[in-house]
Predict the structure.
Amino acid sequence: MAIFVLILWVVTASAGVSMLWASGRARQAAVQPVLAQPVLVEPALVESGAVESGAAEPALAGEAIRTAAVPMTPEGKPPPGPHVRVATPAGEHPLLEFSHPALAVTGIACWMMFAYVHYQPLAWIAVAILLATILLGLSWLVRSRQAARQHREAARSFPPRLILLHGVVAGLSIVLSVLAALTASRA
């Protein structure tokens, strides 16, 4: 039974990876037109020398150019940088996006050790990790749905079929994990 539960966990993980892959492709397609726009340089900046071209040929007015480095101040120092406050963009939850898969991998590792050595505390540790992983996954789903309602273009959207598959297999995994742990504790 422990091997069957391990196979279910692997199926759950593969559904989760395919969910992330599909939503990442959708987000990339939505952001791609914004990133593809070239930076245009004002003709007055090119003539005055305020903008240096990294290429050997002169920059033409209205043409996109690349700069090799930040221009220096008259004292030869780099200009003061902006003091940027780092904030999480709307629809992104980096702690949930990291901890849900990380705990899932940890839980699978504990369950693999239990399946190999049949040490009962490892089964209960894996079940506890799985419960925490499921709670984090549900909170990630709720937060993503809230962000999708507020900021349509910025939110990570998961395919509903994969959400359902991932959730059903995870629920089945927890039920069978508890049953396997109870069976192991009685043996």
In short: Residues 2-35 form the longest helix (34 residues). Confidence is low (pLDDT under 50) at residues 53-59.
